[in-house]
Design brief:
By secondary structure, the protein is mainly alpha-helical. The chain has one domain (38-271). The protein is built from 8 helices and 4 strands. It has helices at residues 2-34, 39-48, 70-90, 99-127, 143-169, 181-199, 203-232, 246-271; strands at 60-61, 64-65, 93-95, 174-177.
């Protein structure tokens, strides 16, 4: 009986090794077909699945809106950058940061929530045609605050996600914290410098940020779906090197594209535009 189960499992895994790449090709082809033309158009289709894309709340390269609003640009470029930074600096470290760093991350989260809520209430006030004029606001929201609070949230997401991913993947764990005060300080400093460069409004900076923010969005989705796939397949803590991750990552990529494609089609059907939600501005 045990031998039969092993053979069935092996056969199923062999089928998946053929099925997943084919499914990935079909998902990618469908997404390429439905998304707008051009490289930035493809990035727009990623941002379109997770962001309101309101023009007035976004950065621009000339007249060209970036794929995500200012807050989402900060959040997802910073998350992507922080994941790359930790992978380069810390390898397979799998312990969550210290309580002190967690406290700072909570502050980043609170700043994100407060500024986001205030910004949303401000939007309601200015799109309700006077019906909600009495909504209180702490301050007038702006893209500078959206960028900085968004990037703080991106750092927090990556700081928690990275060690959890390592705890799930590897057979042999490095029990050290994935972020320590020195590396955390360097990361926050680099993100702050990049934010200031973004605010300089130079295409030299904004083009790479457009790519990093959109691909950072897709990468987070791929990682989450890949981890979900690994848990469903009961492959937790079975991997010894990154080369063994190709099937879970390809599965995560396929599922992420299918999710993005589904949301894109639903929103496009509902709004009829790849831009921000009609009637929302300010």
């Amino acid at each position: 009986m045990g031998s039969m189960n092993i053979n069935q499992t092996s056969r199923f895994q062999s089928i998946l090794k053929w099925f997943i790449p084919v499914a990935a090709i079909f998902a990618f082809a469908a997404w390429m077909y439905i998304s707008p033309e051009g490289a930035l158009g493809k990035l727009d289709a990623i941002g379109y699945a997770v962001c309101h894309r309101i023009d007035a709340r976004s950065f621009h390269i000339g007249d060209r809106q970036l794929p995500l609003c200012a807050r989402c640009t900060g959040e997802f470029y910073a998350a992507g950058f922080a994941l790359i930074f930790q992978a380069f600096m810390n390898g397979k470290r799998s312990k969550l940061p210290s309580r002190g760093i967690i406290a700072v991350l909570v502050l980043f989260f609170l700043a994100f929530g407060i500024d986001g809520s205030n910004s949303y209430l401000y939007l309601l006030k200015h799109t309700s045609q006077g019906a909600l004029d009495q909504i209180p606001n702490l301050y007038v929201p702006n893209n500078i605050l959206r960028l900085f609070t968004g990037s703080g949230m991106g750092i927090a997401l990556a700081a928690v996600l990275y060690p959890i991913v390592n705890q799930t993947l590897w057979r042999e764990l490095d029990e050290r914290p994935a972020l320590e005060w020195k590396s955390f300080g360097i990361l926050v400093g680099l993100i702050a410098i990049i934010n200031l460069l973004v605010l300089a409004d130079s295409p030299i900076i904004l083009y790479p940020i457009a790519y990093l923010s959109a691909l950072g969005t897709l990468s987070l989705l791929v990682i989450v779906f890949a981890i979900l796939w690994i848990m469903i397949m009961r492959q937790d803590n079975t991997f010894e090197n990154p080369r063994q991750l190709w099937l879970p990552l390809l599965s995560g990529f396929t599922l992420a594209l299918l999710m993005v494609l589904s949301i894109d089609l639903l929103r496009l059907q509902f709004t009829g535009t790849w831009s921000g939600f009609p009637g929302l501005s300010g």
